[in-house]
């Protein structure tokens, strides 16, 4: 378990949190822990400085989600030959087996539409970022079968963007999660981070990135006044 800030800088950061100037700021909802949203905003702004994408998408999911969603593409049915000693007069030539997929080509995580609370979009403009509603959404508003997501490649959606998913209901749960996809000229960058609330919010585990890197992003994302 690791603090989200370096011990030597914790007090300084805590004093400065209310005064830091963010390039963008996602608002807290009634079910959100304000301190967790502060961490989220710090992360978002650090990612903008580090990668300078053309677009930023911030997507709130209704509740906790774990690391299994990282690079998850969805599930679908595949044909599987039945055992040779089965009598096919009592069944079809093939049986259908449901299988989960983590595709090599990055696709959008197939969260059900009723789990997607908000989708914010920002575009780069005059050296900064402004909120701009874009007509094409990462997550469709109508429910679709999971297998329909298997070929919804993120790189076909936009050529340069940072996508950040984060969990809602953090006020009640006392835990939060964030998942990041970075699309640019090179290979997509994907990682996951989990947080827990003790006396404050702590970075508990990561996947696809070192914990020290996430802690540094959180520190760098909030500049003191």
What does this molecule look like?
By secondary structure, this protein is an alpha+beta fold. It contains 5 helices and 10 strands. It has an 8-stranded mixed sheet with strand order 1-10-9-8-7-2-5-6. The protein has a two-stranded antiparallel ribbon with strand order 3-4. Helix 2 packs across helix 5. The longest helix has 18 residues, at 34-51.
Keywords:
single chain, 225 residues, alpha+beta, eight-stranded mixed beta sheet, 5 helices, 32% strand
Quick description:
It is built from five helices and ten strands, in the order βααβββββαβαβββα. Helices cover 19% and strands 32% of the residues.
Write the layout of secondary structure elements.
Layout: E1 2-3, H1 10-16, H2 34-51, E2 55-61, E3 74-81, E4 94-101, E5 116-125, E6 128-131, H3 154-157, E7 161-167, H4 170-173, E8 175-183, E9 189-197, E10 201-207, H5 211-220
Parallel strand pairs: 2-7
Antiparallel strand pairs: 1-10, 2-5, 3-4, 5-6, 7-8, 8-9, 9-10
N- to C-terminal distance = 29 Å
- How many structural domains does the protein architecture include? 1
Please work out how many helical segments DSSP would assign.
Answer: 5
Strand content: 25-35%
Total strands? 10
> Assembly type of the shown chains?
single chain
């Amino acid at each position: 378990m690791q603090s989200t800030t370096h011990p030597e800088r914790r007090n300084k950061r805590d004093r400065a949190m209310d005064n830091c100037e963010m390039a963008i700021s996602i608002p807290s909802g009634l079910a959100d822990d304000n301190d967790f949203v502060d961490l989220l905003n710090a992360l978002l702004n650090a990612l903008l400085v580090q990668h300078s994408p053309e677009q930023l998408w911030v997507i709130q999911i209704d509740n906790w989600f774990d690391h299994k969603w990282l690079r998850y593409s969805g599930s679908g049915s595949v044909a599987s030959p039945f055992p040779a000693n089965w009598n096919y007069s009592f069944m079809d030539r093939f049986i259908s087996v449901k299988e989960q997929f983590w595709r090599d080509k990055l696709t959008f995580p197939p969260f059900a539409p009723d789990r997607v609370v908000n989708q914010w979009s920002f575009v780069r403009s005059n050296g900064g970022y402004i909120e701009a509603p874009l007509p094409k959404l990462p997550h469709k508003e109508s429910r679709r079968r999971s297998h329909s997501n298997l070929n919804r490649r993120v790189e076909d959606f936009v050529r340069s963007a940072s996508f950040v998913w984060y969990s809602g209901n953090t006020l009640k749960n006392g835990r939060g999660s964030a998942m990041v996809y970075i699309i640019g000229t090179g290979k997509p960058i994907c990682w996951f981070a989990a947080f827990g609330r003790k006396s404050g919010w702590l970075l508990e585990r990561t996947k696809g990135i070192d914990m020290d890197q996430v802690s540094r992003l959180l520190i760098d994302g909030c500049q003191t006044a």
